[in-house]
Amino acid sequence: MDRVDALTDVAGLRVGHARLARAGALTGTTVVLAPEGGAVAAVDVRGGGPGTRETDALDPRNVVRRIDAVVLTGGSAFGLDAASGVAAWLEEQGRGVRVGPDPHQVVPVVPAACLFDLGRGGDWRARPDAALGRAAVRAAADSAAGAAVAQGNVGAGTGAVAGGLRGGLGTASVLLESGATVGALVVVNAVGSVLDPLTGALYGSLFAGRLRHPQPAAHEAAVRRLERAREQTSGRTAGSVRPPLNTTLAVVATDVLLDKAQAQKLAGTAHDGLARAVRPVHLLNDGDTVFALSAGRLPMAGLDAFNAVLAAGADAVTRAVVKAVLAARGVDGPGGVFPAYRDLYGEMYGDVY
């Protein structure tokens, strides 16, 4: 099967997006659906203002061993309701923790995390709900194995913003010499910036191996345009929120068989990928959260092999951030003016990522 440089290169994982389609809405939900039988899962939360559901179940000390889906959603704490729709759909499929003799006596464990995008479309009450979560998980289930993943302002990245610049959703994968795959999916919605204020280069591009600096005149014009956009936004719905509230979310996964403690280590080192691409990161205004999934059956071949997985997870996260920013498209609406990187600097990076 051809690789698509996405989380779905990890065999068995599927991704589905749903966007709230109504006037004044700029928000959505993304679901990562595990294969039948579930995936080992862990989480590492480093932002100071997280909004999550069922993350305690992923602690290696606790009883849950596998989960069937992870939900990333807009709408702040209100948007966590999307996970209820995913859980209901999983129950209908008989997927979850078996708690009785009947095959359908299951309790799905659906870890979820939300980002702050309230008011970005102009309507403060536009936020994902259970119906949107159901739509996203059905989109994931209906997708083909190894399918390409839509990027940019889709799903949970619909209303994403990073440092006043348009954020979004990106995904990438790494094929290791061992034959193992590590993939990442990131929703970039940060208080911090993704670009160097001195040059306009994307921070993450340095570590992705394709660092490019805009011409000084182009960067000066971009700085002025971004400042005007921030001034315009300050008088609109989204700009009225003080201090700014955001949160970057990620899922990193591998087809190497990990236990929960190893998966938690993978989630932790994946945060290094965020720190390379967003500055500053893990602020009190953010709720930065990374989930890690082990969805395969490839045996772990020792310490060096595990280190390679950890390093690849961080690399995939960094590149996914860059891809998210490059795939984003600007918006000028009642909730604010958020130009995209491509609006400011053109097609400088092309499709190199």
Task: Provide structural commentary.
This protein starts with 13 loop residues before the first strand and ends in an 8-residue tail after the last helix. The chain is of the alpha+beta class and 353 residues long. The radius of gyration is 19 Å and the shape is globular. The protein has helices at residues 76-79, 82-92, 130-142, 203-208, 216-234, 260-277, 303-327, 341-345, and strands at 14-19, 28-33, 39-45, 52-53, 66-67, 69-73, 97-98, 106-107, 112-114, 161-162, 165-166, 168-175, 181-188, 249-256, 289-298, 331-333, 336-338.
What integer is the average pLDDT? Answer: 93
- Euclidean distance between termini CA atoms: 20 Å
What proportion of the residues is helical, as a percent range?
25-40%
Give the amount of beta strand, in percent.
15-25%
* Succession of helices and strands: EEEEEEHHEEEHEEEEHHEHEHEEH
Number of strands: 17
Largest sheet: 6 strands, mixed
Total helical segments? 8
Rounded to the nearest angstrom, the radius of gyration is 19 Å
Poorly predicted runs of 5 or more residues: none
